Amino acid sequence: MSRVINGNYPVSDDLRGRVQQAMEQLEYHPNAIARGLRRQQTQSIGVLIPQVNDSYLGMFSHIVEKTLFAHHYRALLCSTEESLEKETAYIESLLQQRVDGVIMFPRAHSRQNVERLLKQDIPVVMIERKLPDLPVHHVLVKNYEGGYIGMRHLIDLGHRNIALIAAYFETYPISERIQGALDAKRDAGIVLNPEDFLSIKSEERRFEIGYRLAVEILKRPHDRARFSL
Fold first, then answer.
1. By the 8 A CB rule, do 1 and 31 touch?
2. Nearest CA to 181 among 225, 214, 217?
3. Predicted confidence band at 5 (pLDDT cuts at 50, 70, 90)?
4. Span 143-228: which CATH code?
5. In the chain, where the domains are located
């Protein structure tokens, strides 16, 4: 039976069929935890995201889950809400469940948790953000280039009064996007006005707030283009 379940030894189609039929009749289900301890693999991956109700992160989670499932892994989705306390609790749970790896969006406060994973030989992949000097893999976005190209596109369309709406102006990766946008304005000889910056407070990170701020901008005397980072 174990050879059929684990698929680590060749068996005939006839034998495989009879074993699977017997398992169905007996309603037998392998003990995943016991198998994981024996094989040192649980076929599970922890996925830590900042917000589960964010449209971009929701799509990201959907794609990751589908990809993992197609390769016979299961995703354990964890929404940290940018909280160190929640992140630490989830990391502890993932360690207890002996996950085979972790995919996460780290913050500056995440270093200790990542180090805990690495000490247990659990591979970590960081998305969008870096924690310097840690032996992990990264999947990064060219934030500066994106900000520059986005602003340049609006400028090339003839806009000059362009406002920036963003949350966490001083933090990575938003700060890189803003710098790219500002450099594009500077290269085009456009003067930056302080009123062109509109910040969404962290507790207000909703599409409705961004929409309201955009409406306020459009009500100003000069026609403006909105650039959301």
1. no
2. 225
3. low
4. 3.40.50.2300
5. 1-30, 32-139, 143-228
- Is residue 129 very low, low, confident or very high in pLDDT (cuts 50, 70, 90)? confident
| CATH number for the segment(s) 32-139 | 3.40.50.2300
Quote the longest CA-to-CA distance of the chain.
79
In angstroms, rounded to a whole number, what is the distance separating the alpha carbons of residues 9 and 4? 8
Q: What is the pLDDT of residues 92-115, one digit of tens each?
A: 999 999 999 999 999 889 999 999
Per-residue b/e over 119-129, b at no fewer than 16 CB within 10 Å?
A: eeebebebbeb
pTM (whole model) above 0.85: no
Which has more pLDDT, 13 or 34? 13
50/36 Cα distance (integer angstroms): 28
Query: H-type helices in 109-196, by residue range?
Result: 111-119, 143-156, 174-187
Measured CA to CA, the distance from residue 129 to residue 131 in angstroms comes to 7
